[in-house]
Design a protein that fits this description.
Helix content: over 70%
Number of helices: 9
Structural class: mainly alpha
Number of strands: 0
Strand content: under 5%
Length: 210
Amino acid sequence: MNVFQFMLQNRSEVVELTLEHLWMVAASTLLAVLIGIPLGVLITRWPGLNKPVLGSANIIQTIPSLALFGFLLSVPWIGARAERLAILDLTLCALLPLIRNTYTGIKGVDPSVLEAGRGMGMTNRQLLFQVELPLALGVIIAGVRVATVISVGLATIAAAIGAGGLGEYIFRGLAMVNNQVILAGAIPAAALALLADASLGWLEKRLSPG
């Protein structure tokens, strides 16, 4: 029996684990966007926060996910459920590209465009929402793209704490020393990562300034 026959015979479980995987990725990416983009904007306004914010995000990025799971287990309410723990872990790991790309995109806006906006009487708030963010949108979407692909890959590790997802097959296959079971989790996860990368890459090109 090859891996595709195995997936066909267990299609209901494959679909269920894929949906669990997608839920964790979608929830964590959305949370990371809601936190990371405002932080990226914040450090463009207060440069003194640049190093602490980016440094903290860099440190989180370097911590192995399994170790981060261990650190977060003691957090009230979060550590009580594996799914919450996995989503928080993925959210923290996705912050760096979002913060960095938002900062880079806004700082990359041509100063002459900003001067022209100020000359038209635009306030700082209007400049941010009507000039800087629209012009930086392509770079910001690139950050979302990187964060999503990272989350798809890291979500496989969530199975180690019982949070479900396609990592269930990978860990089960490792325990059984069965390559077919490992690939039944790895192939759909890789396909999700490629699909996310391609679709967000297309969106990035569409939203980048001509």
